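User: Before I run my own analysis I want an independent prediction to cross-check against. Here's the chain; please return only the C-alpha cells and, at the end, one sentence I can use as a sanity check.
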Amino acid sequence: MKSRRASREAKTCGRLQAANASIGFSEQIARAGLRGKHSAAIVLLLLLSFGSRSVAANWQSTLTKDPPGNFPELRPLRATYRFGWSGLTAATGEVHFGSGLTAATGEVHFTKTSEGRFQLDGTGRTIGFVRALWKLDVNYRALAHAQTLRPVETLQTEDYRSKKITTHLSFTNNGVSRARTEGQGGSAGTKTREFRFPNLFDLHSAMLYLRSQPLSERSTHRVVVYPATSAYLATITVLGREKISVRAGTYTAIKIDLQLNRIGKKLDLQPHRKFRRATIWISDDADRILLRIEAQVFVGTVFAELQSLRFDSARS
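Assistant: C-alpha cells:
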C-alpha cells in the first residue's frame, strides 16, 4: 500500500511541477481551482487560460450580439466548492453573493452597489498534499455594470511561496488596459498592455451575461473574454438537460460545452495544445448555480464541484 501511495503521490507531484512550470495562475486556472459560479467566474478563471482549435476564419462575424437577457438576478447566497484533479482534491473555496457584505478569506461576496454595479470578491487557496508542493492563495475582485453586464475592472492577486503577482484590468467600450506586477518588495516590476477590441467581457461579466440568456437546447453563444493576460474566443453550446448529483445534492442541470481559442495580436485565432474542452453543469432553475465543471487539459481532468449551498434570502 505504501509503495502504491508513494507512486501515486510521485505521479501527482510530476503533474503539478509540469503545470507550474508551464503557466502562471491566471493561465493556470484548470489546475488548483478556486471558488464558484459567479464563482464560475472564479472557476473559469482556472480555465480561460487554455485555448482550443480554430472554429472559423471569419470568427468576428460569428460573435453573439444579443443584448443581456431578462433572466432573474441571482439571489444572495453562500456556497462552497472543492477543486482538484481526477479524484485528488486540490483546493477549497467559498462563494458569497449578497448585498452589503465584505469579503473574507475563503469566500466570495457578490453585491449590487448603490452605483448600479455588480461587485464580486473572491478568495481561494490550495490545501493538503497539493499545498505542500504548490502553495497558492488567490484574491479576486471584479466590477460590472448591472444594466449592461459589461465589465468595469478586475483585480487579481496570486500569492505563491516565493513570489506575488497582481493583475489589474480596466475596461472600456473599446478594449482593456492591463497592469501586471510581479515580484516581492523592491524587486517587483510592473508591465502594462493595451488590447483594443469592442465589447470585451471579463470572467465575472461573461458569466453574468451567459446566465441572463435563455440557454435553449443546442443554442450557441460566442463571446470574447479577457480574464487576465490574453483574450480568448469562448464558444458555449447548450447540450441539453440532465440530472446530476454533487456533494450538495441532486439537481436537474443545464449541460454546457465550452471551447476556447486564444486571440493573437493580429486578432488571429490560435490553438492551444494544453486544453481539449470543458463541460459545465448549472442548475436548471431560477438561480442557475454552477454545480460542476470538468476540463480536459494536459495534466488530466480538473474539476470544480458544489459542496454546500445556502441562500441569504428567500425567493421573492
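Sanity check: The chain has one domain: 2-307.
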